Every structure is written in structure tokens, then in C-alpha cells.
Amino acid sequence: MSVLVVMEQYGGDWNRMSFEALSAGQQIAADMGARASAAVLGNGLSKLAGELRGADLEIVYTVEHPLLENYTADGYTAALEAVLKAKKPSLVLFPHTYQARDFAPKLATRFSQALVSDVIGHRVESGSLTLVRQYFQGKLNGDLRALGSGPHFASIQAGAYRSDRLARGQATVEAFTPELNAASIRNKPEPPFREAERAVDLTTADIIVSVGRGIKEKDNLPLVEELARTLNAELAASRPICDNGWLPMERQVGSSGQTVSPKLYIAVGISGAIQHLVGMKGARTIVAINKDENAPIFEVADYGIQGDLFEVVPALVKELKKIR
Amino acid sequence: MKIIVAIKQVPVRDSVLQVDASGKWIRESELSFEVNEPDAYALEEALQLKERYGGEVIALCAGPARVSQAIREALAKGADRAIHVESDDLGAADSLGIARLLASAIRSEQPDLVLTGLQSDDLGYGQTGVIMAELLGFPHSTIIMQVEAAGSSVRVKRELENGWFQWMELPLPAVLTIQSGISKLRYATLMGIKKARTKEVKRLSAAELGGLAAPVLSVEKVYLPQKTKETQMLDGTPAEAAAALVEKLRFEARVL
Ligand SMILES: Cc1cc2nc3c(=O)[nH]c(=O)nc-3n(C[C@H](O)[C@H](O)[C@H](O)COP(=O)(O)OP(=O)(O)OC[C@H]3O[C@@H](n4cnc5c(N)ncnc54)[C@H](O)[C@@H]3O)c2cc1C
Question: A199 falls in which pLDDT band (50, 70, 90)?
Fold first, then answer.
């Protein structure tokens, strides 16, 4: 049994979720009586590799090639295929990032395997590994086992394992130079960019009232707008509200929107999908109003009201007006 | 441009989920189904590409008899024809097994572009498009927010994390997974619904496509997640709950 964690970097900086995957790798390896190794891909990786020397890892592989300078699915898949064939790990872990979503299923397919994506936990019973993942955007959990001789593949959901629990130790750095040819890399990526500066900065807001699809129609928005006004709060939203054009994109909270940490976050009719949670779970106090008692948002809420937002929000406004 | 759109039918949002007798999946018999939302956006993008560049849109859907509803909807919105991969036991299949069936249905059509949603609202594996690309030998790109055709290639805008984006050029044929919100969804018109009845739906059995391969993942059980956080639930009438909440926010959390 051996575990290989594929770390993610961009332009010499880590994607911080890599350390959560690394922590997961260490814990799974320990439970299986093994040690984890790590791999990082790119071109010019000595600084990053040096930062992993102090972690409890068997080997840190620096997979370097000029064609890995910029991420492409073809380049990363070919390079890792070579690493896996040479080093034969039994389990390969990734952070569940946009990049891993883009190439990890392709890599797994090369080995006639399927990626267990978005893993939130694991169990080891008599030497056999069970992975836990969510279905229905967090409303249901499932226990899975990967079959066959492997290698097996899994990606780790944001926030499921804690990077501050990384075990310290000593790691050996080992270079791995894959053979790649430019003609086999079909995608031509251009440099990443951001859209024009955001007109709304939610990151400095003290109080945020955030609205989700539970509001049903654009015409119902004045209900939450009044709640925001009463609290002197910024109005924010889950992605579908912005997708529908009911509120501008710059008011979206989550992995593809803003990451906020106000002292009070009131989620109204938001189910609590992981992509929303990563953007707001750093709030000091979280309130959720939702008609579904099993909505995942209650898992991060300090206070919850299970009920119809069309009754609860007006009652809350009335109550707040008494003290303001 | 010849475009195939792979769409999936999933339980309607806000369905009440109950684990079935096997403990390995949910009871589907009492549920209603709808087109997976990101797939609806993939269909919309395909129709818009056809409007801009000409060509044909083919809807591809695997599943039991109930998915003909999803197929009819795609045809009514403007897809030219459809392929239904008929199978009653896809529930037990993993992402690799499903993608194999779809890829073999796609292969003989020789499309220029294959579109699908970036993930399904039920299983949420987020892999079908990427695996199909690998099986077909096509390049791919994921989480796409804009598509422009450029002769024998496409230029696409990928969404990255935290508000970043990236343009990427891929040679055709290619597979793209589409992000929700790429454009505004259309409704089927009455005319469209009428026309849909006359459009071709090719039915293929899983066996004709090489059969469903033995699974590489096994779902041992599904269950409602255990609550780990102590959420204080405020009960009573809306007025009582609201009053209790304001009290808590003022004197316990001290955030008001
Ligand atoms: C790559 C990627 C990136 C994404 N990025 C983001 C992001 O940045 N931000 C984001 O938010 N999402 C993002 N998403 C989408 C995310 O997965 C969810 O689909 C989305 O957050 C769901 O929004 P919602 O909770 O408003 O809607 P739903 O999930 O539909 O939930 C609506 C909720 O309202 C409740 N409700 C309905 N009626 C009432 C009522 N009358 N009273 C009270 N409650 C009611 C329901 O019980 C339900 O819980 C992303 C997805 C992907 C795949």
C-alpha cells in the first residue's frame, strides 16, 4: 500500500487546498500502515519542493518539463501516467479543484479506473479502505470502495481534512523527468485573467443577507432587500440567483464568487452546496432560514429556523424594527 | 457544425430523498424527474452555436423509459434528432461505465463537438464529459462559460476559481463541459412541442453498444449525513422564532 498526493501549484504558488489533500493522504496512509508521498508538476519547482521537505512524507517527486510550465490536461495526464507506471502507488489523491476536475478523470480512465470525486472522509476496516462522498449536493452521503487492483483515484473536497494537522517529519526530494512531446498537447491555453474590477466588495461587509433559489422569483427579492436594509447589511446571493440575472454576478458568494467573513451571515433559502459553503463558512455567526430540516446549510449554521421564508423573513423584519 | 449534447434526467430539485430497501440508493418510484440543470445549459449552448454557425444538434440521453420526457423536451426546444440509450440498470453503473456507453453511441456519429453539463445534480461525479473525451480520443475543456468557433478549432472561456477565467483553444472534434449560467435558457414553444413529435429518436440498447462493463466502484451504502454541528434550532411560530433569533443575536452572539 502506498499513497501519492498530487499537489497543485500555479506560477510557483501552492493552491492551498493541496495541503488538505496532503493531510488526507497522510491520515489514510497511516491508517493503512504506510507513508504518503507527494508529487508536484511544473517547470522550476525547487523552491516549492523545498517547502515540503519538513513534512512527514516518504518522497516528494518534482515532475518537471518545459511543457508543464502551463497546465494542460494532455500534458499533466501524460506526465502523471508516466509517474504512476514507474512508481506504482496504490492510491492517488488530488485536491478537488477546478484543475483536478479537468484532468484527474482522464488520468483514471487511462488505467481503466474511475475517480472517487469530492471525498469528505474515509474509514479503514481490516486493511480495506472505504471512502465517503456526498450525493445530491450534500443531502446524502455514500460509502464507496474502489474495486480491482488499482491504482485507485480520489479527490478531496475543500474543508474535509485540516491542513493544520499535517504531520511534520522529513521527506526526500526526487526529480522525475517525463518524456513529453509538444505535438501531443492539443489545447492552447491563454493566461488567466479577471473580469473588470468588482463594483461591490462584499469582503468588508459586517453583516450579509444572502438569498438563494428558495426566493423562487425575482419579484420576491424586495422581501430580502428589506431585511438587508433593516440590518444595514449588504445583499448577497447564491449562484443560481446571479445566473438568472436577478442580482449582478458581483453579489455572488462561493467558490466562483466572493469569499466573505462577516460577523453575521444570514442565508435565506440557500441549500448549502459545498461551492457556496466555501465562500461563507468563515463568517463569525451564521443564521440559516430554510424549509428543509435536512438542508446542508444547517450543518454550518449557529442558529437555524426551519420554516417558510415568506413567513419567517417578514416576522424577522418586524422584530428587528422594534430594536432599531 | 454537428453537435451532440449529452443530457441526463435527475430527480427534481427539493425532492424528499429516502433510502431504498437495498440501502445502496434512493427510492425512485415516488420521485419526479427533470433535466439536469447544467445539461439544460449545454443544450442551450448547442442550439445557440447552431443558430450562429449552422449544422445539427443531436440530443443523447441514457436511461430507462422515463427519460423520453427529457428527450422530448430537448427536441421541443430545437434539437434536430435524438439518441436514447435504453437501459434500466444504470443506477448501479459508475462514471466510467456510463461514459463508455455514451462514447460508443457518439463514435459512429462523428460529431465536431460534444457538449454536456459539468456535473449532475444527483451523483455529482463531474466526470462524464472528461472520460468521454479520453475514450473518444478528443481534446476537452471543462467548466466553460463561452464558446466561439474558429474554423477547425474552438476558442472557449474556462471558469477558474475565485473569479478568474482563461481562454483556451482546442482543435475539433472536442468535448466541452458547460457551466450553469453560460446564457439564458429558452422555453419550448408550442410550435416546437408540435414539431418534436415528428423528429427522429434512435433507440439503442446497452448491449448494442458493447454492454455495461463491470463496475470499478462499488457503492456500499447511502445515508443521511450525521449532524456534527450543534445548530440551535429556534422553534415556534414564525413570530416566536424571529423574536428568539433577535434575542440570541443581540445577547448571545452579540452581533447586533
Ligand atoms: C464549479 C462550480 C462552481 C460553483 N460556484 C458557486 C458559487 O460560487 N456560489 C454558489 O452559491 N454556488 C455555486 N455553485 C452552485 C452550487 O453547486 C449550488 O447549485 C448552488 O449554490 C445552489 O444554490 P441555492 O442553494 O440557492 O439553490 P438550491 O440548492 O436549489 O436550494 C434552495 C433552497 O431553498 C429552500 N427553500 C425553497 N423554498 C423555500 C421557502 N419557501 N422557504 C425557505 N426555504 C425554501 C430549499 O429547501 C433549498 O434548500 C457552483 C457549482 C459548480 C459546479
Answer: confident
* pLDDT of A295: 95
Mutate to test the interface with A, among B120, B128, B130, B167 (most CBs of A within 10 A): B130
Note the pLDDT tens digit of each residue in B11-31.
999 899 999 999 999 999 999
- Indicate the SS3 state at residue B143: strand
Q: What is the pLDDT of residue B93?
A: 87
pTM equals: 0.96
Residues in A touching B223 (Cβ below 8 Å): 140-142
Question: Which pLDDT belongs to residue A171?
Answer: 96
CA of A273 to the centre of ligand 1 (A): 6
* Chain A interface includes B219 (CB < 8 A): yes
Which CA distances in Å does A97 have to A18, A180, A267, B22, B194? 9, 24, 25, 33, 43
B152 touches chain A (CB under 8 A): no
Is the omega angle on the peptide bond into residue A296 within 30 degrees of 0, that is, cis?
A: no
- Identify all chain A residues contacting B99, using CB atoms and an 8 Å cutoff: 109
Reported as a single tens digit per residue, the pLDDT across A25-52 is: 999 999 999 999 999 999 999 999 999 9
| Rounded (10°) angle between helices B128-136 and A98-110 | 40
Condensed to tens digits (0 to 9), the pLDDT of residues A214-253 reads: 999 999 999 999 999 999 999 999 999 999 999 999 999 9
Instruction: Check residue A23 and give its pLDDT.
Output: 98
Q: What is the CATH code for A3-184?
A: 3.40.50.620
CATH code: domain B2-224 is 3.40.50.620
Give the distance (Å) from ligand 1 centre to CA of residue A302. 19
B40 shares contact with chain A (CB less than 8 Å): no
Parts of chain B with a pLDDT under 50: none
**ipTM for the assembly:** 0.96
Nearest CB partner across the interface for A294, out of B19, B96, B224: B224
Instruction: Report the CATH number of the A202-323 domain.
Output: 3.40.50.1220
Residue A60 CB coordination number (10 Å): 24
* B230 CB-contact burial (10 Å; exposed 0-12 / middle 13-18 / buried 19+): exposed
Q: What is the predicted pLDDT for the residue at B229?
A: 81
* Domains A3-184 and A202-323 in one fold: yes
The residue ranges of every structural domain in chain A are 3-184, 202-323
CA-CA-CA-CA torsion sign (A111, A116, A117, A121): negative
For residue A1, the model assigns a pLDDT of 87
Q: What distance in Å separates the CA atoms of residue B48 and residue B55, rounded to the nearest whole number?
A: 11
Interface membership of B123 toward A (CB under 8 Å): yes
**Nearest C-alpha neighbor of A255 from the set B8, B185, B118:** B118
**B contacts of A208 (beta carbons < 8 Å):** none
Give the closest of A256, A258, A285 to B255, CB-based. Answer: A285
- The DSSP result for A146-160, as a single string, is E-SS--EEEEEPTTS
Query: What pLDDT does B8 receive?
Result: 98
Q: Residues A100-128: what's their mean pLDDT?
A: 97
Q: Domain limits of chain B? A: 2-224, 226-256
Distance (angstroms) between ligand 1 centre and the Cα of B11 equals 15
Phi, psi of B149 (to 5 degrees): -85, 145
Q: Name beta bridge partners: B191.
A: none
